[in-house]
Amino acid sequence: MDSIPSPGDGQPQTRFYPPRIKLVVMAAGSMLLASVGYLMSLSRITWLSVVGLVLVVLFVAMALVVLARALRPGPTVVFTRDGLVDRTTLAPTGLVRWDEINVVRKREIGRGRSSERVLDVVLADRDKFFDRPRSLPRRIADRYRKAMKHPDVSIPASMVSTPIHGVIDELRRWRPDLQVLELPPQFSKVRLIKRGPIKEHPKPPRW
Question: pTM, whole model, 2 decimals?
Answer without folding.
Answer: 0.74
